[in-house]
Amino acid sequence: MSENPGGDGRTIQERAREVIDSIRPFIQADGGDIEFLGVENGTVKVRLQGACSGCPHAAYTLTLGVERHLRERVPEISGVVNVP
Q1: What is the domain-level CATH number for residue 20?
Q2: Is 52 exposed, middle or buried (0-12, 13-18, 19+ CB in 10 A)?
Q3: What is the pLDDT of residues 33-51, one digit of tens each?
Q4: For residue 20, is it within any domain?
């Protein structure tokens, strides 16, 4: 699934990476970071780092922030998971 191009010819992987890169500065501003690891079967894999890695609110950051933005801009995405 990650190789299927969108309407603009970019793959799901490329579009998902672009979304992650666009929200990184906001996560970094809170002392954390997010690393894009890839897309597998519609699920984006990321690694939360810094302050985010041990934060009890990390699950909310993923679902209410990262996942919401991903699904808005890359509708083929079904979810996002943190890979420690």
Answers
A1: 3.30.300.130
A2: buried
A3: 999 999 999 999 999 888 7
A4: yes
Q: Which two tokens stand for residue 7?
A: 């309407």
The DSSP output letter for 75 is T
Report d(CA 51, CA 78) in Å as an integer: 26
Q: Tell me the per-residue pLDDT of 19-30, one tens digit each, with 9 for 90 and over.
A: 999 999 988 998
Alpha-carbon span 69 to 44, nearest angstrom:
12
Token pair recorded at residue 79: 């979810």
| DSSP class per residue in 1-45 | -TT-B-TTS-BHHHHHHHHHHHHHHHHHHTTEEEEEEEEETTEEE
